Amino acid sequence: MTLAPGGVKGPPPPPEGAVTPPPTHWPAVLAAVAGGVAVGMNVGKVPMALAALRPEFGLSLVQAGTVSSTLSTLAVLFAVGFGLLTGRVGALRMALGGLMVSALASVAGLLVHSYPALIATRVLEGAGFLAMAVAGPGLVSAAAAPADRRFAIGVWATFMPAGAGLAMLLSPPLLDAVGWRGLWALVATALALAALATALQRRHYGAAAAAAATIGPALAPAMALLRQPLAWLLALAFGCWAIQHFSLIVWLPTFLKEQRGMSAGPVAALTALMLLVNVPGNLIGGALVQRGLPRGRLIAAAHAATGLCALLLADDRLGDGLRYGLCLALSFIGGLIPAAVMSSSTVLARQPAQIGVLQGLIMQGSQLGQFIGTPAIAAVVAATGQWGSARWVTGSVAAIGLLLGLAAWRAEQRLLRRAPADA
Description:
The structure is a single chain. This protein has 16 helices and 2 strands. By secondary structure, it is mostly helical. Strand 1 and strand 2 form a beta hairpin. It is globular, with a radius of gyration of 21 Å.
């Protein structure tokens, strides 16, 4: 053991003759994150554009909901399958393919004039989103040095709130100036630029560019990962967080419009800010995991705090400023959870082929939470006639998430005792 400056014990020197891993190539990490942010914009562009899409395409409420939820539905059904495919074709090919399919689908969306054609473009955007979402962590892991990998995955975890929040923030001025097609064109441009940036960094992604020679070599390690209880505990904990976060995304704009009479611009800005404060939460979560804080404990603590915030912000006796502050706090603290969950590839994934299927399982858990949580909250609100009653749903899933976090902590401790890893 050596002494670092200031007398602090540092890591032991590498054995003589050992190969020192290359340092983290941050431009390659950020290029992959930019791809995630770009596909995240495809999620955030629709909610604010529905008011323009409905009269042009003659959409009913159900059809409008289908346009908005297509990406989530695909993720619930096929996320793990996309993860398996990533192990077969390689993360780099999967990511580039996803970005280009998404970009072309957004361009095609500019030309459609019917509801079926619009849905077809959304299905293609959803496929591209899934491809990038499950392949991106493999690129990040390949470009990051082992010592930085957990924090780098925490940076990756910002892609969804950053992309969706950015699209929502830009939507009102763009919709006023150039209409929904201008918004689609902007997202298509962002996707194409992200694909170019990722392609330019391809030499820094190493093993993530490799593909399995046959499906067998990709399938066997994937099945080994899926037999790990920790992977399922983390995916379910992420799903519990998704229910809380998505309920907030649904509740806040509705409250601001219907109860406070705000126009679209301020509603979009306040909702986007609520999404964007999740980003620093992700970064702090990645830093805490990097410093050795157990993932399960971090997840449990975050669920306890977000559950408390959800219970308080539903209290009509509190002022609007305080309630909005609780919304921001819930989103910020909840950002610790994706970073803790997604960085588990450093302990669960022993080879690149396993990263994609792990991220697919995590994505499936997240989207399943949204898929189940939204109608559950709607049913409770419809039965009681009060939006505040949604807190019993969010509070319950927060308690479940806390228990899942503690179970994940114990499962990870057992796993590390059997096979120490860069966790």
